Amino acid sequence: MRKLQVQGVHHITLTGADRQTSLDFWEGVLGMPFIFDQPNLDNPDEGHLYFDPGDGRLITIFTNETRRAVHDRTPTDPGCVHHLAFAVSQATFEQAVERLDERGISHSGVKDRGFMNSIYFTEPMGLLIELASYVFEPPMGCSHADVLIEAHRLRVARGDHNIGRIHLADAIEMLVERRQDSLSSDRGPKNPY
């Protein structure tokens, strides 16, 4: 028996409202370029809008001109999607509250998650959206996941409740030391003062 090894999210498709409401939210609020549309090939009564969330992958929306925004929270029963999280820069994240407030979009306010900051609000059909911004940059040649797995190991070894900035800083130091060789025979911390 062998795995079906995935290599990333190809696309996510959501059931949206009418075409204009979908365009106004996904491009007009979240800034995702609208890259193409066509009919829903499985349902001739629906359109199918394609957006780039920033990494060249796709968020697609099925639209129907008879559907209107409902603003009720989508179900969170087991098996349902709880929320979608989109990455934003720290510069954008620092403007999120102001930019949501100016549109009258209700939100959670900023949540410090230790390794990232988050803010939550619902899209027009009630799906919870998270804007997430890492509070660290991984070292050259490493991914955020590389840092997080090391930070997790440190957190567990230290008996801490959740990943904090100290775990991230120590994980980054470990990854740099592991990844980049040095001519020094002793790479330990020093105090030259």
Automatic annotation (TrEMBL):
Its EC number is 1.13.11.-. This is Putative ring-cleaving dioxygenase MhqA. The gene is mhqA_2. The keyword Amino-acid biosynthesis does not apply. Keywords: Dioxygenase, Oxidoreductase. Residues 8-134 form the VOC domain. GO terms for molecular function: dioxygenase activity. It comes from Falsiruegeria litorea R37.
